[in-house]
Amino acid sequence: MSVEAVPIRPRDAVADFVFQASAGSATYEAVLHRDLASLAPLWRRLQEAGACTAFQRIEWVLALVAHLSAARGAEPLVVEVRRGGHPVLLLPLAHRRRRGVRIVEALDLGVCDYAAPVVAPGPAPSPAEAERIWQAVRAVLPRADLIRLTRLPGDLGPVANPLALVAGARPLALTRSGFGLDGDPETLLKRVCSASTHRDLMRRSKRLDRHADVRFVAATDAAEVADLFDVLVAQRRERFREIGRFEPLDEPGMIAFYRAAALAEPGTGLVRVFGLRAEGEWIATAYGLVHGGAFHGVLLAMAGGAWRATAPGLLIASRIMVWARREGLTYFDFTVGAQPYKAGFRPEERPLFEIAEAATLRGGLMLAGEHAAASAKAALERHPALFERLRTVVRWLRRRRGPKPLHIPAPAAAEHTRLTRSAQVAMGHTAGTRNPAPENRAG
């Protein structure tokens, strides 16, 4: 293989380095870009004609950069890889310092369950070609102590993820899971659920249906999206404070990011927001992404108190599954994690991978420390009683520190000018629930 640095052509005005990796007739050229907006037209073409995950769509990434990159001290970067002058992929990355260590990582910032490139249409690269693509990418990256891309799926829908083919990619203990959607929507749950889960869902649905004004809503306009989003934030914060669990939405910029993404194309775009209503009150809310024929669960929240017995979180999740099939979607993605409620839907687990390369001793020490912490956590989880006691202590300490002020940033007046009555009710009168339903960022 030969490598060569070449002059930047006029079209690369926003790039600061170009690199070529050649082997035989396969020549890959990598270009580092620091202006994401200038890449938007190309990015949109690739994501529509090619392949990516929902978390690398340009709409998601631009909102992420606008609301989260500055708060996290991250400089967004995109590596464009070309072959024969034609784009092969775009790889969104972030360059930041953490505890004095310079890191290049996937452009995640806490809101992406998967890291992946946006791949142009065409034949999937072979492992040897994937290796040359990775070498070209590495050559244009800024100086760093640690290069780490984690939670790489093995495939991007029907297309192999070239980064998962790199020799240095190793499987993670963490997996993703989901199941196919097919057939008649009205009988979907009976087909996908275990017998016991289906009986439980039917029993809880009947219990809920005894109440007045029971409605499942998929928000279709900006006002409805904003109202339901306010309720979701209030319900999650109340529940997480109750159990002493860290709430990612309390981090700077998080609420503004999720709100902006939801309001970009309300009801029709990447983000969809849902609510389950009874007795004039929203008893559960959910936030997910639709991309490539799949629904991806992201956020879910629910009321507690008198509603706990109906398991509103589980019920809204099951109704979203039916909604997704009615919309013609063919896959329901639980994304990452192994929460117990998922097993009842008999999902298929799929591997995730990581590329981690330490370029300096400092980077190596950080990587070793993180691997040691992950191993220690895995060891604790093999002793459930001890793990649960430690987790109880941690949550007790968090509750002792007291809650953060419950503050939902006001959106722009043109989008939503007031906090709805439903959100006020949720903040003042609802509590969380211990239902076996998703309470994490990603379903």
Give a verbal description of the structure:
It is a single chain. By secondary structure, this protein is an alpha+beta fold. It has two domains: 2-168, 3-Layer(aba) Sandwich (Aminopeptidase), CATH 3.40.630; 178-347 and 410-429, Gcn5-related N-acetyltransferase (GNAT) (Aminopeptidase, 3-Layer(aba) Sandwich), CATH 3.40.630. Helix content is 34%, strand content 28%. It has helices at residues 40-49, 58-69, 127-140, 188-192, 195-209, 222-243, 254-264, 312-326, 361-381, 384-401, 421-429, and strands at 2-5, 15-23, 26-33, 75-83, 86-98, 101-106, 118-119, 146-153, 155-156, 159-160, 170-180, 215-218, 271-278, 281-291, 294-302, 331-336, 348-358. It has a 15-stranded mixed β-sheet that branches. Strand 15 (294-302), helix 8 (312-326) and strand 16 (331-336) form a beta-alpha-beta unit. It is globular.
Brief description of this entry?
The protein has 443 residues and is of the alpha+beta class. Helices cover 34% and strands 28% of the residues.
